[in-house]
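User: My collaborator sent over this chain with a note saying "see what the structure looks like." That's all I know about it. Can you take a look?
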Amino acid sequence: MVDTMALLPPFLRGARSARSPERRSTDHLPPGLPADDEVLLDVPDQRLGPALVGAGRGEWVAAAGLLAATRAGAQWENRDRYARRLAAFAGARTEWFEKWRSAAPDDPDALLVAAQLAVGRVWGSPARAELLAPAGPLVSAAADAVPHDPVPWRLALDRARGANAGHAAFERLWAEAVRRAPHHYGCHVAALKYLAAYWHGSHRECFDFAEPAADDAPPDSLLQALPVRAAFAYLTDGCGAAVSRARLDAAADRAVTLSARFAAADPWPAEIRNVLAHVLIRLDRRADALEQFRLIGPYATSFPWDRVSDDPLGLFLLARRELRTLPVLPSGGHGGRAHRRGH
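Assistant: Without extra context I'll predict from the sequence alone. Here is the result:
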């Protein structure tokens, strides 16, 4: 069996089971980074924040208005993100969502949140494949309510993966998804995850999917970060044939270029930047990783740090701090070995 702990960089290894480290002043941080106590985890953006505040008060109108605006404006990436966050909140605080369903049972946006909630609430169960069956009609209802919306088809792809659907069935769902939005990031991530599970350990096939998708997408599309998602999966999986260092670096370089298109401390690309920083650390490109932490600013995200530690914020803060004390490669350097561990 692979000793996955030994394959982690030392500071990631030490934080895997540790509690949150003591927060320190900026004296312990590289220049240009916010203090530890200024960093927040999974902060909602300015549009989602009021909807979550309203939901916390038991009110649903702001959430409904937010999703209706994304539907009217065909803002599918926003719609996907907001539906996930609202469903997660509904899973913890159900009253506001029950009021919404009661007041507007045919609201297409409530149907979407209901479908996301049904898939998400059973995802961690060992009996997931069986428990996902009742979610099928809810996903279909959300898809029928807004026929041009790709987000229910992302849900259908997730459900198919969780239910261990065969490749032919998944390809039919994939065709429906890309017909609606050829460059939808959420659907592509769902497909990448399915391929990683379907061809477990065959990370080359995941790269073979991610790279052409990025090539075909506009330069500012989130799909430019799809190869770095494939790189992250490879570097944390610990199985399968080797992927070349050149291919891993090319994936990181593409994501670095995408990150540079956004302003610093912008919550929109925060998750992509967090993934990229994690990958750059594993590739021993520490100066490049430090630059991503500067661009991230105060916006830490649970993913990818929660794949390594049960304290994602603590690990994020530790990673930033350790970059000051570890030897740093020149910016853009590709030295060091890529490490892999179990995922």
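A starting point for your reply to your collaborator: The chain has 18 helices and two strands.
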